[in-house]
From TrEMBL, chain A:
GO terms for molecular function: ATP binding; ATP hydrolysis activity. It comes from Flexivirga caeni. SUPFAM superfamilies: P-loop containing nucleoside triphosphate hydrolases (SSF52540). Residues 11-261 form the ABC transporter domain. It holds the Pfam family ABC_tran. This is ATP-binding cassette domain-containing protein.
UniProtKB/TrEMBL annotation, chain B:
Keywords: ATP-binding, Cell membrane, Membrane, Nucleotide-binding, Transport. It comes from Flexivirga caeni. The keyword Transport applies. SUPFAM superfamilies: P-loop containing nucleoside triphosphate hydrolases. The lineage of its organism: Bacteria, Bacillati, Actinomycetota, Actinomycetes, Micrococcales. Its main location: membrane. Gene3D superfamilies: P-loop containing nucleotide triphosphate hydrolases. This is ABC transporter ATP-binding protein.
Amino acid sequence: MTTEPEVLLDVEGVEVHFPIKRGVFFDKTVGYVYAVDGMTLQIHRGETYGLVGESGCGKSTFGRALLRLEEPTAGSVTFGGVDVSTLKGEALRTTRRHMQMVFQDPLSSLDPRQTVESLLLEGMQAHGLAKDKKAAGARLRELLAAVGLPAAALRKYPHEFSGGQRQRIGIARALSVDPQLIVADEPVSALDVSVQAQVINLLEDVQEKFGLTYLVIAHDLAVVRHISDRVGVMYLGSLVEEADSDDLYATPLHPYTRALMSAVPIPDPLVEDRREQIILAGDLPSPANPPSGCRFHTRCPWRQEERCDTERPQLRVVEIDGVPASHRVACHFAEQIQSGEIQRHEVDPVAIDPSAATDVEAADAEVVPTQTFTVP
Amino acid sequence: MTTAAPAKTETLLAVRDLVVEFGGRGRPTFRAVDGVSFDVRPGQTVGLVGESGCGKSVTSLAIMGLLPKRGNKVAGSATYDGTDLLTLDDREMRDHRGRDIAMIFQDPLSSLNPVVSIGVQVAEVLQRHRGMKKSTAIAESRDLLDQVGIPDPARRLKEYPHQLSGGMRQRALIAMALACKPRLLIADEPTTALDVTIQAQILNLLKELVVDSGTALIMITHDLGVVAGLCDEVNVLYGGRIVETASRHEVFARPRHPYTTGLLGSIPRLDGSRSEQLAAIPGSVADNIPWTSGCAFAPRCSRALEVCRSEAPPLEQDPTAMEEHTLRCHNPNPAEGGEPA
């Protein structure tokens, strides 16, 4: 913490815009889905960076764009001093050895017709790491031991394993080429609670053992908080807040982060009964037609006239006592909200319609229905 | 259950020794639900909690008579208002379903008809059970959509399921379930497919519903956080049997079954300390042993004794508890003097 940590991954203004095409012959582009819209962040060597956000906020697309599995339409990704976004062919392929990915659904990301041995060897062979058969064999057994699978697993096929074990295979495959960075996209959300904990613990263990850097992408705040050193909160394609994990949870500053945290159920009735929830009105706006100004202003209970609707806030350091400089937030009024100068107000849910965006009006329905249902 | 308190309020639904077996065609039968009993009183929210394969969904499908008839065996009873639902034929059951008992499912997209507009789908329930004419039913549907917090209900009536967001679809399903003001609502993982902020909206809606209308709710979920905020009584299921039952405060303050504590230890808490490792339960459901040869959880249990692998423990009242708290364990966690709520 005292010395300046080495930056392993430097992401600058990355955008991924998917064209929306219409027409049979001409493929006219009629608009764009702004999946990732200006992401800037740095990941230090050896740390775990957690990226949270709800479905459709672009977090997975961002993870894929880092590895160039999705072509960024703008911005740069620098990995260990090399600009990945301009690499081509062989250079890109060899760089990818150092950046591996663990996917959400282990069954669909493992080839059902390959044995575990061949799954694990494939990457090693592609990168010329399996020339010595004996050494490769030893490496495989070492990998399996590291992820807690028996050596007998090598000759089995993915369907013979349970969900948690499959995820272990996915992790072993990522580890097989000895990477520096692992991008884990929802690594535990497909698993049962008791197995989730096993995989989370495993991720922590292998990180320590192999000195890995993680980018963990997840929607579950509790999981992200547990595993990450630093956390970035994403909303509609860009970061709204970034801070050290403990800091973020102690003093969430962005209204969206506050709402997100208050919405996570806590397995303790005493806490649940007491805490105040911020229930957001309406749904996530379509990334094909993001709101002007602050992306969150349509649902924000602290929205102020004019400025929030027109000016898009940038990540900035706030001047609040006890909030360190590493805690950055993209909100015009973070200080006033924190001090209580600006109070929460009611928000009418806005009907979200990706196709007909112009006739959208705020309906006058209440956030929470107050009508009663009577029993006959 | 042995300790049924004498008539606190009348019981709305009493499930007794429910057994569901799948099998046939020469395959060995599989007992998905193995003697589940619980009561639901009006206005009460009862939670069925467990991981995949514990039989929680099958229990609800059996109560609703939605399991396929062929190849399954359903035994036991589910008495709703004096009638045993399990003995009704299809026609009689259809009269109850939707009118007295309604259900909402995990995936709203696959439980809505994709080629029929939302309005017609909601109105269908009203026409079938309340004998309304189509025009009145559509007008009533509009009010229902409004009640569940769908903005611009008049427009949404004419739309199709794919045009709605996930949270909106779940609201539409809730509107359908509420159309006949049922006295019992079964919610099978109603928020699992939704984002947390939308989950909070839906849970709030369900909470209000229970308070305002006195509808009883059976909440089926794997998420102990949801249970902590919503359920009056919690039943923890494992391998088709109830392993622990108590009020929500009791279960969270003094969990005594090793599986319940295991589940609690497995969840990273938003407000907990970050540094320590999670206390994961080793193994997976595949390691279970059948209840006939002991406790199904024994192979994964940290407190398993010799007797756990030879004899299935009975479901008994916890002698150290101040209130109703039943437990199926030979060697429960030591009772701590946790604050009895």
